[in-house]
Amino acid sequence: MIRNRSKPNENGKPLEQPGNGQPSGQPSGRSESGRLSGQPSGHSDTGRLPGTWGQGQPEGRPGKDRAPGRPGNAQPVERPAGSPEPEGVLGVWKPAGWTSHDVVAKARRLIGVRRIGHAGTLDPAVTGVLPLCVGRATRLVEFLQELPKSYEAVVVFGVATDTDDLTGRVVEEADASALTGEEIRRAIASFEGEQEQLPPMVSAVRVDGKRLYEYAREGRTVERKPRRITIHEIRTLDVETGVPRPRARFRIRCSKGTYIRSLCADIGRKLGVPASMAELVRTESAGLKKEHCVDLDRLAVLAKEGRLAEVLLPGDRLLTHLPAVTANRRAASGALHGRALDPADLEGGFMHADRFRLYGQEGEFIGIFRFDHARGAAVPVKVMGRPQDG
Q1: Whether residue 123 lies in the annotated active site
Q2: For the segment 320-356, what is each residue's pLDDT rounded down to a tens digit?
Q3: What are phi and psi of 185, to 5 degrees?
Q4: Most exposed: 52, 118, 173, 245, by fewest CB within 10 Å?
Q5: Exactly one of 45, 102, 123, 266 is catalytic; which is it?
Q6: What global pTM score does this model have?
């Protein structure tokens, strides 16, 4: 049977969910308008060197001395036989020291599901929003990853490393005390807009069939092609100057594939000094913000009490970058079987949309479709609904 769901609010605002995520932390250290944290926090969400966990542990395998509460020690929830598999998108506030794989493994056991995955890697040292897709919602990962992401980052000037963050080997140092707050703010603001960015050597981008981080592990540097990215908004929050290694904290909203560590290095180049990323917190991903997230302790409680529905959001509700279209009953039935649809059977502006969300008359989500101009029909990209029995 088709499962009915309320048609999404077209303003794109997700349900307000009570979150118990760990606080992102207030910066500390002398600054023009507050205090900046002086503690490095490591890698950006993209471009980390896979295979690291803490001090050299392989990803997803914290080791025999794993602390209580790690994925391997989580007690799975037993769901009653025949009960439906949980489904939706869950926002988790990832703690420092955990890989994204660790969080998925822990959530899998807590929730008691097989199908679960994240919609965007965060490095172990990075905290913040990690969207988990549960059940059939795992089929929407590729669409959720297209949505912009937001971060708060700290860049430190006067030092460069081979990984563009403070966990790498120092390759250049300089006294950057001559930098002024105004110079730093102007340089950061200049990166807003569309541009090309060179992916770091510790990224998972493939070159000649091999990932860049594999070359990096061999101590090799290979030629990389710049990739087109968009920085929708970037704003300086705090600046610390008058010291050999000035710092700046900034907020950024950017497109998929943006490497924050590379951006920090580029900001330094713009100012004529070496620079590295010192801290990173992801504040938005897949349309989820901190207020929509829970921490792992809270997730354990909700799973044990059978209250997961309180924090699971319908995946389609987050895909607000895709227009919503409604099919009549005949077309909806055909759509559920993956058939091409006559535009006359559809309501909503979609003729110029690359893809769109398709709903039935009762607001049930059918799937992602696109308009094929050559055929003059709407064709399925991903069918999510279930055909009616009989």
Answers
A1: yes
A2: 999 999 999 999 999 999 999 999 999 876 666 789 9
A3: -60, -40
A4: 173
A5: 123
A6: 0.79
